[in-house]
Design brief:
Strand content: under 5%
Helix content: over 70%
Largest sheet: none
Radius of gyration: 20 Å
Shape: globular
Number of strands: 0
Order of helices and strands: HHHHHHHHH
């Protein structure tokens, strides 16, 4: 019956004109409790994958490959967990803010390059370098959500360098 009402009222045609971002935004109408549960579950899975990756690092032959896969997947899960709190559209907009755009670009590039270095180029030294860059860029990105912390860190580093 609802389908018939939407077709007769013209709402069905408007639904077809929606963009992907509008569709994602409509899909994020979860209650606050569900959002928190989703955030915690996704973050716990990400943290568990990261810890598991470090745990398998020292296995012979396949340890480094498993580390790279688990660590990268853990970072992706941790990044996606915040989409539950803010909603996917708002999260994507915040990721592209001028204060976070560079950190976001470096972080996503390092995620992709880590997997490319491990599986396509078969260069595990380069993959480990990209993992380290993942840590640094993800940390810098995360710190951008805390007011004035990045500026304080830059001042502290500049004082230590002098």
């Amino acid at each position: 019956m609802d389908k018939l009402k939407s077709v007769l009222s013209g709402e069905e045609a408007r639904r077809d004109d929606r963009t992907v971002l509008e569709t994602m935004n409509e899909a994020s109408t979860l209650g606050w409790g569900t959002r928190v549960k989703g955030f915690v579950a996704c973050f716990v899975v990400g943290a568990a994958c990261t810890i598991l990756g470090v745990g398998v690092l020292f296995l012979p032959k396949i340890g480094l490959t498993l580390f790279i896969v688990f660590y990268t997947f853990g970072n992706i899960c941790a990044l996606c967990s915040t989409m539950f709190l803010m909603g996917p559209l708002k999260q994507l907009k915040r990721m592209c803010d001028k204060t976070r755009a560079l950190a976001t670009t470096i972080m996503i590039t390092c995620l992709v390059l880590t997997l490319c270095a491990a599986f396509w180029w078969k260069n595990f030294g380069l993959a480990l370098l990209f993992c380290i860059l993942q840590v640094l860029s993800f940390s810098w990105y995360s710190l951008s959500y805390i007011p004035f912390v990045r500026e304080a860190i830059l001042k502290m580093v500049s004082l230590c360098v002098k």
